[in-house]
Amino acid sequence: MNDGLVGRPVMRVDGRAKVTGAARYPADDPVPGALHGFLVTSTVARGEVVGIDKSAALAHPGVVAVYTHADLPRLTVPTFPYIKGFIPLQGTAVHHAGQPVAIVLATTVEQAGEGANLVRIDYRAEPPTASIDDAPQPPHLPKPFRNRPNEIARGDAAAALAAAEVRLEARYSSPPRHHNPIEPHATTAQWDGDSVTVHETAQGVNLTRSVLSTAFGLPPDRIRVLAPFLGGGFGSKGPVWPHTILTVAAARLARRPVRLVLTRAQMFTLTGHRAEFRQHLRIGATRQGKLTALVETTTAQLSRTEESIFNESDSTSTLYDCPNVHIRQEGVPLDLASSSYMRSPETTAHFGLETALDELAWQVGVDPVELRRRNHTAVNQETGSPIRGKRLLDCYRIAAEAFGWSRRAPRPGATKDGDEYVGWGMATEAHTFAAAPATPPVTASVTIGADGRAVVRIATQDIGTGTYTVIGQIAADALGVPLDAVTAVIGDSALPYAGVSAGSATIASITGPVDRAARAARDAVVALAVADPRSPLVGVPAAEVVTAHGHLFHARDRERRDSYRAVVGRHGRPVETTGTLLNAPGHSWGAVFLEVRVHARLGSVRVTRVVTAHDLGRVMNRRTARGQVLGGVTWGIGHALMEHTAYDRSTARVVNPNLSTYLVPVCADTPAVESHFVDHQDPDSTALGARGFGETPITGVPAAIGNAVYHATGRRVRDLPITRDKLL
Amino acid sequence: MKAFGYSQVREPAEAVRAARQTPGAAFIAGGTDLLNLMRDGAQHHDHLVDINHLDLASVADSSKGLRIGGLARMRHVAEHRSVRERYPVLAEALEASASPQVRNMATIGGNLLQRTRCGYFRDAASACNKRAPGSGCSALEGWNRGHAVLGGSEHCIATHPSDLAVALLALDAVVHLLGPDGPRQVPVDGFHLRPGNAPHVDTVLRPAELITAVEVPRPAARSRYLKLRDRATFEFAVVSIAAVVDLRGGRVRDVRLAFGGIGTTPWRSPEAEAVLRGAPLTVDAIERAGRALVRDAVPRQHNGFKVELVQRALVELLSGWGGSR
Asked: Angle, nearest 10°, between helix axes A701-713 and A347-364?
């Protein structure tokens, strides 16, 4: 297996199609007769719609219909993964600014947009609350979300904290942030009688189908959801959002296909975000830096209609060995849209934990890497069972050596180069990846045609991570055919079942089924060959047949050979097999070491060097895995230094709903990244030794940058982003 | 976006005529700002007069100075050899602006007329006196990290976003206009207006007037541009400084200082210049100049750091000029 395709830095099989524009994204293909939809959104954040005047909009050229709560049929509010608590256009209540209050359909997108401008809405407005600081009520502990409790207690944290030799107490915060995939969310709905086809920018075609099934009371088999390519999602296209439901409803009312593409500004209120977040950490430790108590209370923004918390404290609970832990994940309802998953939900709480460990390391005089080694654990802190195949200690060693950590200056503020202070920082990275549900099981099918080519079908998605490529590698290896003899067909709910591409679950959940289906197909073709008198392999025991390069060989006499093409050709019909295999949730880990330069006079922070090492079990594709590291590090730089959604405190409207004023890093902000992988088979993996990984790199980057800024300057910034005004 | 009419013109006079005769008309050149303004609902025009075909794109340098056509693209000016050699502050300001793609399209005239990036101005649902006179200013008590500490009024504290205008201000440039009443010239110093009681009026430009050229006298001294921002490129200034300093024997013979990011207009500081003029260029003198610059600053909740930052930036820029540190 080691000389196969799996693990190699194979180029993306869809790369050429993407860069030449041949890849068709969900809103790309024209739909004959389709109307364009445009949402009218609330200008106020709290109150009620008291009047709607459609007349000017309906008089506008090209406008076909304007639908409001008075027009839409009553729909059923779905539960997870519909993370909203209500469907707009079902009543008059307004729960956040930017909430849809009407949908305009027109012949062109420009006419629909101007029609939306012309719909006059009158509101009874109430003053909203937009920030945790302004909330009238104290935070509360919401009910468990998806069976995950918001309070976790192990041991006696209070007593251990009181008795600790060393104590540390600190408060950290992260601002609200938005996903901002380049491709805007888009829905195209086409009804045919009581069935509907939905072209959707979805991270989960089956999740989207299940939500629509609930909302419209339709059997799932009447709904087909298609998402062949995705222009980035980062969690924002995992849940289903109101515009999807409203577009499907409008298409039914209008008896015409409808396409709706959100504007960038609408994506700031209609597709989730990372909630504003506060973290109060108290740590007890020995003088040697061994953790004895972790007491954490977090506060996240909630909405008036949804109580779920997505800034998860997994790292505080599970990353280090600590017998006494008490975590409370509290929330405060505000008049904002509901938050949701965003790439690496742990990131916000992880920032505080990894910063606090750095503070503890300075306090007790222990190197930050050594402090983490002393608190390393190979035992699952929540269940007490051993973790097999955890190579985090290797990550520390590899990254530290590659970075040159041993040459680190022992004191903060000690290194200056020209006008800049130079600082080094590190942090652990960790992410909990999800398992696909057991029912229905994730299933792949493999079909070998008379041309000897294989088609893999599975209702998974490629959200930009390389799923097409890795499916090809897995199937080609299992079959013994070249990569270009495999075609992956994905992104269609009509295909064999798979789950959502979120929680870093794709590779972990589809690899087993694809491998099994491909091995079954190989075995079936071998069985045909050895039973076929026309085959040179007739009579050879199946176990003695090997496959490679599209051929079947006798293992001990390679002159006796046949080919997939010949065998299936003689068979006269395609060979089709399926495979299923469950997977379990787990963790991937890593370490990030980096260097920053802080301008002594101007407070500018530059990240100038980054070295990472990650333990993700077996690396399926070194190139796409590295792509996840590059993206994660880049986003981590954004989180640390600039990203911030600004809400106006009196109107609760987003003040920077565009990529001109919501800053993300540009190339000049991102240095070269040296990435290492501890490449090994995870013994508990059902994915050929691989684990879910995509969201792991990013988790430690903001803390590593803050820790490096401290090392450079002696200034500890606990509130992100670290903008220059905090360092003057 | 509202539907609009569109026409092309070939001669400057024809452009002015078309704009005067067509109600609700605006000129469009690169369109890098105008189209966003129209999409965001911050500006409405019933008709666009496309001036891209006017013969106003040339750049010419002579012993008297530089003449830049109003339709010269930012990239063309920034790459011009004379500009790089003799007006480095101009090339530096242009190259610190926007992105290469935007600089390929955006024109010099359009750059001077671009509108503030204040989030409230660009959100049609927010109160903004610049966009909707009399509706109020959301920034005074709102998210004002990017806003001005100098030159504001109780009606508006939005900054002008142009780097180019800051450089031209330090160079004593003059804007050439053509309007229904014929040509006229307006110094860049005075071209942009403080908000006062009429924040919706950004400049002295009259209806249907066209920027035909910008003339820049050749400076007798070195010039430089320093821009500080929240990411490395493709972002507006938090604080910027254009400086033209004539330094003889360690003393400042003459100096012109203009600032971006801190004022409601590109900001010239005669007070700071007066402190430096005739003085040795020491850190102490520069710090006194900085204090003079911000004497009347009115910081708000989120932008107070600019008062300190601009003084540090001034030291950063001038203390490396060749004088003593």
From this structure: 30
